[in-house]
Amino acid sequence: MKAHFHDLLKYNQHFNHLLIENFFTNSSFWCEKSKHILNHILNAHQIWNARILNEDKFEVWQINPDQLLVNINSANLADSIKILEERELSEILSYNNSKGASFENSIQEIFFHLVNHSTYHRGQIAMLMRQAGLEPINTDYIFYKRL
Fold this sequence. Notes:
mainly alpha, 2 strands
């Protein structure tokens, strides 16, 4: 199961990276909402890793300096891989969400959520890209597997 999550996390990082590159290339066409969603994808991944690792967390909707986006995406993958190597997927994590409510979930549930969350928001960006006259990136998992 860890190998499967390793693959999903690499898929997630790969298409986040392509979106970041597209943002750099076509920034004049990207609307503010797309930029906010891209930052949110990266922030949410960092937040989940930080909850597991008991580290400082980003804000959910903070806007990061453009020049840090690639590094944040890479650090997110590295931290998630570290978690996969050092922790059990069945481990239960107690945490507070961004509104202060307490919850418990397994690392497996958290990793599935963060990949699914990113996929959902990449779909929103694809729709906004099309509205801006750009060709969206096909970020379907099966396309990653065909690379």
